[in-house]
């Protein structure tokens, strides 16, 4: 528990370096949340269920859905520390169209919408933390959307590797290919070309 508290405090400090949050306030926040540890292959969210809000502090996860032919399409990769949720499901209180699965052992905290709202109303520090997470996630989503439009598949692959090289050790190549919007064969070619340019 102490290690998770330190990971949480570190996450808060990175997002809000100007704000001093006492250990006492951090403990109050954490006491309102549920500690969740997932084994590799466990789901934090399944399609058709309501999303909760997972603060992933350590580990890797993958979000995916299915296309009209039933094939899996990777929608996102998450590396701790990161907020993991289906925002449409969580805030809109509707069944999720996504699945989110642990690629590795994962540790973090789970919040329901009621707990999130309670912390927002009772703790200005948590409200600022939540705002900073929201801004960060919006920026990540915008960057990913524009990368699919403005960058070549090779550049998107390079960007993914630069952002988190550790992901390559945990994600299957077919999931990376799906996320990048290319076939497995194209990803193999891209990986060879990138390796040859080093």
Going by helix content, strand content and strand pairing, the class is alpha+beta
Taking all Cα atoms into account, the compactness measure Rg is: 18 Å
The helix content is: 40-55%
N-end to C-end Cα span: 42 Å
For the residues shown, what is the average pLDDT? 93
| Order of helical and strand elements | HHEEEEEEHEEHHHHHH
Layout of helices and strands:
Blueprint lengths: L1 H14 L7 H9 L2 E5 L4 E3 L7 E6 L1 E7 L5 E8 L2 E3 L2 H6 L6 E4 L3 E6 L1 H10 L1 H27 L2 H11 L3 H4 L2 H8 L3 H13 L2
Antiparallel strand pairs: 1-8, 2-7, 3-6, 3-8, 4-5, 4-7
Helix pairs in contact: 4-5, 6-9, 8-9
3D architecture notes:
There is one protein chain. The chain has 198 residues and is α+β, with helices and mostly antiparallel strands. The chain has two domains: 2-149, Jelly Rolls, CATH 2.60.120; 151-198. Helices cover 52% and strands 21% of the residues. Helix 6 packs across helix 9 and helix 8 (173-180) crosses helix 9.
């Amino acid at each position: 528990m102490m290690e998770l508290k330190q990971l949480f405090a570190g996450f808060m400090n990175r997002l809000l370096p100007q704000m001093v949050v006492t250990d006492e306030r951090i403990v109050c926040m954490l006491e309102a949340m549920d500690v969740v540890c997932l084994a590799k292959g466990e789901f934090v969210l399944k399609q058709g269920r309501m999303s909760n809000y997972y603060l992933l502090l350590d580990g890797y996860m993958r979000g995916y859905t299915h296309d009209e032919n039933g094939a899996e399409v990777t929608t996102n990769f998450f590396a701790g520390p990161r907020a993991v949720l289906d925002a449409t499901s969580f805030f809109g209180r509707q069944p999720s169209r996504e699945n989110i699965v642990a690629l590795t052992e994962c540790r973090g905290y789970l919040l329901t919408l009621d707990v999130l709202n309670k912390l927002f109303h009772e703790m200005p520090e948590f409200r600022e933390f939540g705002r900073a997470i929201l801004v960060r996630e919006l920026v990540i989503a915008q960057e990913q959307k524009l990368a699919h439009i403005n960058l070549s598949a090779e550049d998107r692959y390079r960007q993914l590797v630069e952002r988190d090289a550790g992901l390559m050790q945990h994600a299957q190549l077919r999931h990376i290919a799906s996320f990048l919007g290319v076939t497995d064969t194209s990803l193999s070619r891209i990986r060879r070309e990138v390796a040859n340019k080093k």
